[in-house]
């Protein structure tokens, strides 16, 4: 539960650096390291100018965490409230102690063995 709370409240930032269309670096929470080719390329080189991804790109994915964690019971709709009440009731009643059931043959002694029946029937457990 604590891990779920931590993951929902922390803001996440993932940065990716692409150079010539290839993924060069990925960084979580920090700035990405560049390859040093962020300068615009000259048009003298015709082969590199023709390709579509001839320069560097940075892609940033940012997921903002939740700041307001106070949720009251009245903020939930009727279906969620009924589910929460039913789940709580069921969970609390499943944890009650079960009374120990009486054993009906507890006071009766086992039968007295006159002969070894397994040996007479030649039935052996392996």
UniProtKB/TrEMBL annotation:
* Protein's recorded name: Uncharacterized protein
InterPro entries reported in the protein's UniProt record: DUF8199 (IPR058512), HYC_CC_PP (IPR058060)
Concerning Pfam families, the annotation shows:
DUF8199
């Amino acid at each position: 539960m604590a891990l779920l709370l931590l993951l929902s409240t922390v803001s996440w930032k993932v940065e990716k650096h692409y150079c010539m269309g290839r993924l060069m670096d990925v960084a979580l929470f920090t700035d990405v390291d560049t390859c040093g080719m962020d300068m615009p390329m000259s048009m003298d080189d015709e082969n590199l100018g023709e390709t579509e991804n001839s320069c560097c790109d940075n892609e940033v994915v940012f997921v903002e965490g939740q700041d307001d964690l106070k949720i009251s019971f009245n903020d939930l709709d009727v279906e969620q409230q009924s589910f929460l009440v039913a789940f709580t009731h069921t969970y609390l009643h499943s944890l009650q102690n079960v009374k120990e059931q009486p054993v009906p043959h507890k006071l009766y002694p086992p039968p007295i063995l006159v002969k070894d029946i397994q040996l007479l029937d030649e039935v052996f457990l392996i």
